[in-house]
Write a structure and sequence with these properties.
alpha/beta; Aspartate Aminotransferase, domain 2; 15 helices; binds pyridoxal-5'-phosphate
Length: about 475
């Protein structure tokens, strides 16, 4: 440095916090998070409290004057952040766990700290390039052809909505087909996009909770005969209930023959395609016109991040392009640069790609795939434990993509509910008590690679 230029002191933050204070607090937050990672298996898997109690500790009048930030951080961690489902707890088996990894957390912190934006190329070429790169990595891993495009959104619900909007922009209005095992967000997405009730056909699934092609074909034919316009078929690659996979290859053929847009909701199950057994189960996933995957489930990301991939180049832009006068100066050119605001409903949008990019770079696909394979295997271990106790348990659906469902012999729903509730209340673990059609079952979702076989055995013992 030339001797005549004095090093400048670090400036304070926008609202006057000194650099020394920022550094001290930043390090304290890192310690809190790392300590929590180390201790999370000792936390309750789920902890909740009543609103009055939470408001009593966290609420109060609008803070006119600032106060002690150390106290405020302590209150946040001990009260607000302590009371939730800990989706990354090794005995969190309910719904879909969120086994987030630390590299992803670091990526999210960096994106937030640098206020990363991926709305337009002119406004954020770096984050936009990272998004193009990670979306393309996902495209390759899921076997989509070169030229397929995508965008990151908050999660599966919005990703499915984005895909359905692209399908309708490409094909025009028409009828959508899905099974009774499709995630409940799909029907809501269709309704909120203006599909009338009579254009939402829900097909009863077969005994293995999969779509029966013959039933889909009969409905499509009947709708056509009645003057309707079949447009979109929605399959699931790994249902949330049982991990069932619709017959993807056959459905792809059926959609080609019938001129239907083929959408696959792989929000939960698609990452299994990174593993050997998953690739076999998910064969045909690469033939979808659009595909959804939720990295905040089985790709080890903190909430939120969902991805939609669309086979036809330009299909997202045709549904979502918005180039008003006041954005003319931030419009991309013809060199492959993308304005992500034109691929979905968000204009100002955070960079969700940074955390996924850092995860891929830090661990590599091989380690991520091994962790996914472990999740598949853990459900098989749970199935084995269930089979070993036929006097207590009945297997309802076998281990599929990290999910197994079972029932206590002769038990009514109230018994399953009570067993699941008391396990959750104990803090040891949490499982789902759900209905498969009219049958009450308990369900384990085992996608956290930190889960041990002993965790599974002890959870089953306590449920019994
Ligand atoms: C979780 C899930 C969704 C919804 O995703 P969110 O990220 O919760 O919005 C959609 N489909 C399937 C199959 C899911 O498992």
């Amino acid at each position: 440095m030339p001797p005549d230029i004095e090093p400048r002191p670090y400036p304070p933050d926008t609202l006057g916090m000194s650099a020394e204070e920022m550094r001290r607090l930043g390090h304290a937050v890192v310690d809190l998070v790392v300590d929590r990672h180390a201790r999370r298996h000792q936390e309750p898997a789920v902890l909740n409290a009543a609103l009055v109690d939470l408001v009593q500790q966290l609420g109060g009048p609008v803070p006119q004057a600032g106060g002690d930030i150390d106290d405020a951080i302590r209150l946040l961690t001990e009260v607000a952040l302590a009371h939730q489902q800990h989706g990354d707890h090794p005995r969190y088996f309910a719904r879909v766990p969120g086994p987030s990894s630390f590299a992803a957390v670091l990526g999210d912190w960096l994106a937030t700290g640098f206020n990363a934006i991926a709305a337009s190329w002119a406004g954020g070429s770096g984050p936009s390039a990272v998004e193009l790169i990670v979306v393309d990595w996902l495209r390759q891993l899921l076997g989509f052809p070169a030229g397929a495009e995508g965008v990151l959104v908050s999660g599966g619900s919005l990703a499915n909505l984005t895909a359905i909007a692209a399908a309708r922009a490409a094909c025009g209005p028409g009828i959508a087909y899905l099974t009774d095992q499709a995630h409940s967000c799909i029907a809501r997405d269709l309704r909120s996009l203006g599909f009338p009730e009579e254009a939402i056909r829900i097909i009863p699934s077969d005994d293995a909770f999969r779509m029966r092609i013959a039933d889909a074909a009969a409905l499509v034919q009947a709708d056509r005969a009645a003057g309707g316009r079949p447009m979109l078929l929605i399959a699931t690659a790994g249902t949330t209930n049982t991990g069932a996979v619709d017959p993807l290859s056959e459905l792809a053929d059926f959609c080609v023959e019938n001129g239907l847009w083929f959408h696959i909701d792989g929000a939960y199950g698609a990452p299994a395609a990174l593993t050997e057994p998953g690739r076999r189960l998910l064969s045909g996933i690469e033939r979808a016109d659009s595909l959804v995957v939720d990295p905040h489930k089985w790709l080890f990301q903190p909430y939120d991040i969902g991805c939609v991939l669309v086979r036809r180049p330009g299909a997202l832009e045709r549904a979502f392009t918005m180039n008003p006068e006041y954005l003319r100066d931030v419009q991309s050119s013809d060199t492959g640069e993308v304005d992500f605001r034109n691929r979905g409903l968000e204009l100002t949008r955070r960079s969700r790609a940074i955390k996924l990019w850092l995860t891929f770079r830090a661990y590599g696909v091989q380690r991520m795939a091994a962790a996914i394979a472990r999740g598949i295997e853990l459900a098989e271990i749970a199935e084995q434990c269930i089979r070993e106790q036929p006097a207590t348990w009945e297997l309802v659906t076998p281990a599929q993509l990290g999910i197994v469902t079972f029932a206590r012999r002769g038990a009514a729903k109230s018994v399953h509910d009570a067993a699941a509730q008391s396990l959750t209340d104990s803090g040891f673990a949490t499982v789902t008590s759900t209905m498969l059609k009219s049958r009450s079952v308990l369900r384990l979702c085992t996608i956290n690679p930190l889960t041990t076989p002993d965790d599974l055995r002890e959870t089953l013992r306590r449920l019994a």
